[in-house]
Amino acid sequence: MTITQNKTPDGLELIVAGRLDTNTAPELESALKQIEPAKQTLYLNLKDIDYVSSAGLRVILLAHKIMLPTGGKMVLRQPSEFCRQVLEATGMDSILTIE
């Protein structure tokens, strides 16, 4: 898995590529915990995610929870087809903001 950070006018975008599973989720979690959750938007770009497991879903929810208390928000950008199917199957698509 690779994580690339890009500043945006209203926050930060993390572009995540590869597999988001038990082995790689801690890497994303570590990157998320380094973000200051000020009133900004965190974009998780998931267009290049090949696979996401329950551990990956947990970290995505963690990102959402990190941003909320300070008035920030988390937006999922361009989830891959596989990722979108998992989000829909788990009902997370109704909880999270997806572009």
The succession of helices and strands, N to C, reads EEHEHEHE
Q: What percent strand?
A: 35-45%
Shape: globular
Give average pLDDT, whole number: 93
Poorly predicted parts: none
Fraction of residues in helices? 25-40%
Number of H- or I-type helical stretches? 3
**Distance separating the two termini:** 22 Å
Strand order, largest beta sheet: 1-2-3-4-5
In total, how many beta strands? 5
Main sheet summary:
5 strands, mixed
- Rg computed from alpha carbons, rounded to a whole number of angstroms: 12 Å
Protein architecture, described:
The structure is a single chain. This protein is globular. Helix 3 links the parallel strand 4 (73-77) and strand 5. It has helices at residues 25-33, 54-67, 81-90, and strands at residues 2-8, 11-20, 41-52, 73-77, 97-98. The protein is α/β, with parallel strands linked by helices. It has a five-stranded mixed β-sheet. It has three helices and five strands; from the N terminus they run ββαβαβαβ.
